[in-house]
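Much of what follows relies on a compact textual record of a protein's fold. Each token is a code from a learned vocabulary of local backbone shapes. The record below shows the convention in full.
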Amino acid sequence: SFDSLCKLYWRTAVSIALGVRHVLEALNENGYLIDTLHVTGGHTKNLFLKDKKDNFFLVSVDEEAVVDLKQIHHLIGAAGRVSFGRPEMLMELLGVVPGAVTVFGLINDTDRRVKVVLDAELMSHAVVNAHPLTNEATTSIATADLIKFVEATGHDAVILKVSA
């Protein structure tokens, strides 16, 4: 099923990301001074937003992107201006804490309360890099597979130009 495939992909992504982190730690413990691993592709910045009617949005953009929070509601279909969602709702809906917001958190939104918006600029990369539910690691996924992942969680993968 899509649900089991989604969970399997997520577990695999987490294992790879954490495995790389542990390899780097082991290398550093043995005298190799590696503090950064450069990964190609778009690196995500994820915004967990809510509107005045308590509709929730996960907006994923390139880490360098500028987003106009005073205007984004027009683009994403929000009911009036948006603000950042409370940490309690972030944990309840996506299962993550502030600083670890990720599209992979959609696996926890089984009631599909969060609308997903993927920035067109981010999705122009062949590969996207995101946290696997923890900000202690990063995992890479082909953009086509990211769309499949989002859809496998029961969400629509809405691609819009939201960055300035």
Summary: The chain has four helices and seven strands.
